[in-house]
Request: fold
Amino acid sequence: MNMNPWPYPFWIAHRGAGKLAPENTLAAFKLGASYGYRAFECDVKLSRDGVPFLLHDADLQRTTGQHGIASERTWDELCALDAGSWHSPSYAGEPLPSLETIARFCISGGYQLNIEIKPTPGDETHTGKEVALAAARLWSGQSAPLLSSFQVPALAAAQAHAPELPRALLLDKLEPGWLQTALDLQCVAVVARHSLFDDAMMSELAATNLRALAYTVNDADAAKRLKTLGLVGLITDAVDRFIPD
Reply:
């Protein structure tokens, strides 16, 4: 897949607006956009009835105050939950958004999106397939989102069912064979923990035409180092500290 020039902005707002608003909500995306961000990252999984929606954790407790596994509830049940009060009273009642809601926001505003496929454990292949198919449908005729995942089966399913969408392998450490895995999945990029990047890793990526993005970059010195190394994207929580370019 030819991605020259790289089509995504350098600065990417993590989960919508980092930590300034309830993560993975439409309110967070709107706040990130108000700081000038033109690209966002979010986590997507499936409801019990197969609706792709935004949530990081498998469990509902941290961001909705509910107990139980999110994927065991229908979308009608999930979209009625309060995903804002845990953050601050001003966001009380903010709902969990569907991927369709976020697609409409991004397409209408001309924003780019990195969708992290975040399967409930045990549902990797099905989630990869359904999220990829939904993204292909929602962004048909538009600038495609970047699909990423730590879960190889999820990316493999995305590759099989929506091969036209660009993919990136997520890494929190460099296991043996990581580069070959990215190549086998026909990825366009690797998205890794920022501390992993050095000259040797960048040379390996350059030799295979894979681009490099880093998470979660909240420190100015780290951002400067990564820019100098040649990364094409930084995912940040610090949307109020970095001026996106």
Q: What stands out?
A: The first helix runs from residue 26 to 34.
